[in-house]
Amino acid sequence: MASSSDPTAPLVVMISGPSGSGKTTLATALVAKGAPGSVLLKQDDYFSRYPFIPYEERVDDRYETPEGIDFARLVADTKAAVAAAQTPPAATGEIPRRLVVVEGHLVACNE
User: Fold this and answer.
1) Is the pLDDT of residue 72 over 80?
2) String of b and e for 21-34 (b: at least 16 CB within 10 Å)?
3) Domain 11-103 class in CATH
4) Residue 42 belongs to what H/E stretch?
5) Which residue stretches of 18-69 are H helix?
6) Is the pLDDT of residue 23 over 90?
7) What is the C-alpha separation between 83 and 47, in angstroms, rounded?
8) What is the rounded CA–CA span in Å between residue 77 and residue 18?
9) CA distance 44 to 106
């Protein structure tokens, strides 16, 4: 990945917190304010063992453990999004910073 001091590199933002705390709402708003080409990756799209069930419909806590998340695919998709979001310098000298926002209750659990 590019260095954080590289002005063409996208800013990677990770948003974590408990279920129902507004992570997706905040992440969606950030991506909308980012430069065109900003990306949102939702951890809910990476459940590996179980299909996604909305929080209010769950009857157990199996979704609250790292084992239920396909972190290998989430990391690979994050790296691909960062590579795709590299922004060449604009003719004006201004470089719009794209965002790669990753949100989920366990996004900070993987190495």
Assistant:
1) yes
2) eebbeebeebbeeb
3) alpha beta
4) strand 39-42
5) 23-33
6) yes
7) 24
8) 23
9) 10
